[in-house]
Amino acid sequence: MGKLKDLTGQKFGYLLVLERVKNRNNRVWWKCLCDCGNLKEVASSRLVNGNTISCGCQQFVNFKKSRITHNLSNTKLYKVWHHMKERCYLKTDKRYKNYGGRGIKICDEWKNDFINFYNWAINNGYQENLTIDRINVNGNYTPLNCRWVTWKEQANNTTRNHYIEYNGEKHTISEWADLLNISSKTLQIRLKRGWSIEDTIKIKKGGRRNETT
Q1: What single-letter DSSP state applies at residue 24?
Q2: Model confidence over 29-74: pLDDT tens digits?
């Protein structure tokens, strides 16, 4: 018997292979994500031979019809929706550990129907220069927990932000950089060099001294 071919990350029809699951009936099976958002376990042979190309659900039938009529599959908003599903459900996606790996999911209303997501986006301030942001970074992708923001605003809403409190004010490094009119990199270098919070923040407000950064 030859070496088993890893199908993870490959697309068969409307099915994206997520991971291998337990063998059944002496056959290799894979967990797949359908374009409609449903999960389905399919035998390896049925994927490779083209016998199974979707989950077969009614939602998929409706979704397929909508793709024909809405003509939005090549839009940036469709790509936003598609990438959102990948980072939440595709374990081989480089961003999975920060999303699906932390338990972040997409509500059924969006995961199963792009048109629902599209309508919410258009009615809630979507513009092509904006990115989708979860208000609660530990919460799921839902209408109540999402908004459209600039990349800079999103950067100030991540679990990796370094907050600095000084003189009763608490801001991220990026926000302090704006207030002090200097670069974020300069503040980061000061902190790495072991400067105190007072020296790091106070210099600009009290008159900048000569320094090499």
Answers
A1: E
A2: 999 998 878 889 999 988 988 888 888 765 555 555 555 445 677 8
Q: 66 and 60 in contact (C-beta within 8 Å)?
A: no
Question: Domain coordinates of the chain in residue numbers?
Answer: 7-70, 72-150, 163-205
Using the CB atoms, write b or e for 12-38: b if 16+ within 10 Å: bebbbbbebeeeeeeebbbbbbbbbbb
Least confident of 79-83, 137-141, 171-175: 171-175
Question: What is the Cα–Cα distance from 3 to 28, expressed in whole angstroms?
Answer: 12
Lowest mean pLDDT segment, chosen from 38-47, 101-110, 175-184: 175-184
- Nearest CA to 82 out of 74, 70, 71 is that of 74
Q: How many CB atoms are closer than 10 A to CB 74?
A: 7
> Beta strand 15-24 with 146-149: parallel, antiparallel or unpaired?
unpaired
The 3-state DSSP composition of the chain as helix, strand, coil percent (nearest 5) reads: 40, 20, 40
Task: Cite the DSSP H helix spans in the chain.
Answer: 44-48, 58-70, 76-89, 108-111, 114-123, 151-155, 173-180, 184-192, 197-205
Q: DSSP code of 10? A: -
Note if the pTM is more than 0.70.
no
C-alpha to C-alpha distance for 56 and 191, rounded to whole angstroms: 55
User: What SS3 state is found at 186?
Assistant: helix
